[in-house]
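Handout, section B. The chain below has 129 residues.
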Amino acid sequence: MRRRIVTIVTLVILIALFGIVYYRYYYVFGDGVKAGTMNYFVHKGYVFKTYEGRLIQSGIRTQQQGSVQSNEFMFSVSDERVAQQLNSNAGAYLKLHYKEYFHTLPWRGVSRYVVDSVVSVTPVNPAQP
């Protein structure tokens, strides 16, 4: 009887731990599309090499009244195909589909926002002087 109780308690604890880990690291909290011009895209890391980028969105946002700051969207990319597509379209106006997680994983990147596809790419023509 005692052995059966220990087995049941152990199984309940393991299932609870599995659920917590899944919820914190693998559950997609939100997803959507962000648009802007890619400012920064790099492949970096010590053990896990991940792709990290920044998208400059149009408009400005201010944290404090009287200050001006660009509206940046920092993201990670875990798919090599998407990373190559972003690398080849640096400087273009991009619409990116992303997934938001509660926490990061080392092999997924340093951002909670993970871009999983490029919705559209529009080349930007620089203004002629």
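Note. The CA atoms of residues 6 and 12 lie 10 Å apart. Compare this with the example in section A.
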